[in-house]
Structure formats: C-alpha cells, structure tokens
Amino acid sequence: MTSHDPLPVTRGYKRRSSGSPPHPPTQNNITQTQALNRNMEKIILKFPLMLLALHIQSGEFSDSPVLEIVEAPKPEVVEFNNTIYGTCEVTPVPNLPASQPQIFGQVLFKQVFPNGTLAVKINLHGLPADDQQARAIHIHQYGDLSQGCVTAGPHYDPRAVDHPGHPGDLGNFVSKQGVIRKFQKLPEAKLFGGQSVLGRAVVVHEKEDDLGMGSDEESKRSGNAGKRIAGCVIGITTPRLWQETEGLPGEEAEEGN
Ligand SMILES: [Cu+2]
Ligand SMILES: [Zn+2]
Predict the structure, then answer these.
(1) Which residues form the Superoxide dismutase copper/zinc binding domain (predicted)?
(2) Residue 142 CA: which ligand is closest?
(3) What is the Å distance from ligand 1's center to 141 Cα?
(4) C-alpha distances in angstroms, 79 versus 71, 238, 255?
(5) Which end of the chain has less neighbouring CB within 10 Å, N or C?
C-alpha cells in the first residue's frame, strides 16, 4: 500500500463507531466492512442485469447485443398488425454517364415488431436486356442524396465491423431481361430501435461487390463495388406496395416471421 491509497476501511469504521471511544480496528471489524463493501459492489454490478430482466418482463427486450429500449413506431404497429413496412423509391443519380444504366424501381422492407426478421423485396428495372454485370446493393449510413449518392456516406455500420458484415450488405444482383427481382432476409438489420435503417439510403453500384475478399483495405469497407449509380431513402409506408408484389423468387420462405 502506498501513501496515496485512501483508507476507506478505517474511515468507515470510525464513522459507524461515533459515540463510543475510538479504538483500533480489529481483524473482525475489517472483515465486516470488507464484506459490506463487497455486497455493495454486487448490488452495483447486478443493477444493469435487473434492468435487463425488467425489459424482458415488459416485452421490450430486443435480440440486439446492445441494451436498448426498443419502441414500436406508432401508430403503424397498431394499424398494420404489429408490422412495420418500409419503401425506398430507387432513381438514377443525377448526371449519370450515358454508359451507365438508368435504374428505377423499389426496395421494400417488412418486419414484424419486435422480434421479426427483416424481409426485403428488390424490384428494379432499366438495365440492358443482355446485361451480365453483377451489381452490389447496400444500405449506406445517411439518407442524404443531395449530391447524388456520394452524400449517402459509407456503409451503415452501427457495430464497427468489416464489410460484408454490415446489416445492410444485400450482396450482388444480376438482372434478367433488364429486371432485378429478389426476395431476401436481412437478419442483422431492423426497421425499429436505435439501429433502425429507416431514413438511411439504399445504393445500387455499377459493379460487383468483392465481399471483403479483395486485397486492399477498401474491400473490407465497401467491397470495391465502383460508382454509385442509383439510390433512394428508406421511409415508412403501408402494406400496399408489399402486398402488390407477391410471388418473388424465394418469397415462400417468408413464413415463420
Ligand atoms: Cu454501397
Ligand atoms: Zn458493407
């Protein structure tokens, strides 16, 4: 023990023994005080666990690794059978070079509150009928398309992990007859809570995502998918668009939400 160390044991002992003549701490006194301190530590350590238990009991528990109070977007969760729907109206970026396709369409989102897996429908057109190019689609951090998709920022990465581990890394898509149609799950992304993708941007790239397998650093950030050629901002909507686009490949896998 150095001269800088406080002596909480002795001080605590003296305070409690006021009124009776002070006497040096005995081994027994010290042990009692230490036990008291240890109990306090236990209570302090348990406090977050008690809060967590309360969350679970009140049905507000999220499967996110970060402890957060997950609130339902209201009134949608009441109006639409505990389900949140999102839509993103894809348009080409301004001043797109003539060599790039003008991609339009929708990316739709559906998630049952609070524990459903986020499902996504991609419906894009405007690609050349004979197009063989695989193109990456990601959710980027900002819903700011004021300067095309450049202002959408990097991939949305709330847990600071490498690409392609970001919640909105949708992967690569090849068109058929100029159309990209796909149903898929995005288990790491959510439409509610502190890590919601609502208000963020979907970006379509000119090239294929290398899925983090490239040799440069950019591979682990963005997948080297090239220019951002089309994009949109995700907003809340009604079930209408989702219901109007039934029957995409793989959509039967939606059961069990
Ligand atoms: Cu991207
Ligand atoms: Zn990514």
Answers:
(1) 105-234
(2) 1
(3) 10
(4) 15, 9, 21
(5) N
